[in-house]
Amino acid sequence: MPDLSQERVLRFIWGVRPCRRGGLRLESEQLGHVRVIHNYGHGGSGVTLSLGCAAAVSAMLGPPGGERVAVLGGGVSGLSVALELLRAGHSVRVYAEVLAMQTTSAIAGALWFPLGIDFPEPGEARDRFNGILKESYSRFCELLGSDWGVREIDVYEPIGAEVHPEYFEAGVIGPPSVVGAGDPMPPGLGACRVFRSLFVDTTRYLPRLHDEVQRLGAAFEMRRFTDLRSVADLDERIVVNCLGLASGGVFGDAAVFPARGLMVEIEGRSIDYAIHDGFKYIFPREDTLLLGGTYEVGCDGPPADDSGYEVILEHHRHRLSRASV
Ligand SMILES: Cc1cc2nc3c(=O)[nH]c(=O)nc-3n(C[C@H](O)[C@H](O)[C@H](O)COP(=O)(O)OP(=O)(O)OC[C@H]3O[C@@H](n4cnc5c(N)ncnc54)[C@H](O)[C@@H]3O)c2cc1C
Questions:
Q1: Domain containing 159: what range?
Q2: Within a domain: residue 223?
Q3: Which of 21, 88, 157, 325 could form a disulfide with 161 if both were Cys (CB 3.0 to 4.6 A apart)?
Q4: What is the pLDDT of residues 223-248, one digit of tens each?
């Protein structure tokens, strides 16, 4: 049983999901002499989608090799695109304000699960989105058992948790099955469902991804973009936009919005499964537990006080206390 006592609390964490009404924007547009391939609007699923989106960007560039490409952003989206393009023989320069462990991507746990993003309506766009999820999942599976910090885990959901069949539509995880009375189940959950997914420990994954991109020869430049002009000033004529939340301001997309997430990190990994109940979750990182959380639309800065974190702790403590009754 996880120990969530006060002495175990390591830190309070806040981060801002880069969301977009209408969901993912993965498309190419010509802006003057620059071709921009957009890859943003990942919301609460940026890690989940990253490798599939990177493959899609590479396919949009056409036959392998030879292009000089500027990748804007050094979070999981930008670094994944950089990796994919380098492997396809392009030359890549990553421009970003901060990289890898300093980005929002390092705040994510991250569970492989398409949560906190608008799904396209059923039809062609939805099929494409599910195809990206499928591709991403299969690429993460290739990293299982390596030093990238990707592992398979059981994810338990209380029976009362909202059911979203679309999360399982890509056909790579789930659907959840009800845990029988005789089966082992996590304390405090009562009747529950379980499915299997991947867990990407970003504390290991992001530095590894960054190292690989560097090893394959990417150049890095710390730079801040403010508007289209600052992008057009780059030497490269092909630009992949992975600026996350900043895509709204730099490229004038009013559909982009922030959704803050609060989490509490607990010392010690006392369980090796995840508990998932919407944004109220427990994720097992390598040496710690991440307790979630919130989804606060419109908030893009730190909370005024610690009360939100206390609510999260109380929620999980209360749930676990029911186990001992
Ligand atoms: C609390 C929380 C929990 C989450 N949990 C999960 C999860 O379990 N699973 C999952 O899949 N996803 C999860 N996410 C979502 C995930 O973290 C994001 O979708 C993902 O990190 C987006 O990655 P990104 O690379 O597009 O953006 P970011 O990581 O934000 O990177 C953006 C990059 O652009 C650069 N940049 C930004 N503005 C500028 C500018 N003006 N000029 C120059 N550079 C700039 C930054 O420096 C950075 O390098 C979670 C997010 C939060 C906040």
A1: 6-324
A2: yes
A3: 157
A4: 999 999 999 999 999 999 999 999 99
Q: Return the number of other C-beta atoms located less than 10 Å from residue 75's C-beta.
A: 27
Q: How far is the CA of 106 from the centre of ligand 1 (A)?
A: 8
Q: Which of 117, 137, 148 is nearest to 195 (CA)?
A: 137
Q: How confident is residue 58, by pLDDT bands cut at 50, 70 and 90?
A: very high
For ligand 1, the distance from its centroid to the CA atom of residue 75, given in whole angstroms, is: 6
Question: For 268-279, what is the mean pLDDT?
Answer: 92
Question: Is pLDDT above 50 for 325?
Answer: no
Report how far residue 285's alpha carbon sits from residue 166's, in angstroms, rounded to the nearest whole number. Answer: 26
CB 73 within 8 A of CB 243: yes
Q: In this structure, is residue 183 part of a structural domain?
A: yes
Q: Residue 206: which of 59, 93, 278, 98 has the closest Cα?
A: 98
Distance CA 269, CA 153 (A): 14
C-alpha–C-alpha distance, residues 235 and 89, integer Å: 19
Q: Are 241 and 38 in contact (CB under 8 A)?
A: yes
Backbone angles phi, psi at 227, to 5 degrees: -160, 180
- Name the token pair of 130: 């599910």
Tokens of 211: 């190292």
* CATH of residue 79: 3.30.9.10
Q: What is the total count of domains within the chain? A: 1
Q: In ligand 1, which atom is closest to the CA atom of 44?
A: 15
Say if ligand 1 is within 6 A of residue 45 CB: yes
Q: Which residue, 277, 219, 224, 180, is CA-closest to 69? A: 219
The response to whether residue 258 sits with its C-beta less than 6 Å from ligand 1 reads no
Q: Which two tokens stand for residue 75?
A: 């979070």
pTM given for the model: 0.97
Token couple for 176: 């959840």
Tell me whether residue 267 is in a domain. yes
Pair 19, 257: CB distance under 8 Å: yes
Q: Which of 136-145, 177-186, 227-236 has the lowest mean pLDDT?
A: 177-186
Percent of the chain residues past pLDDT 70, beyond the cut: 99
Decide if 1 is inside a domain. Answer: no
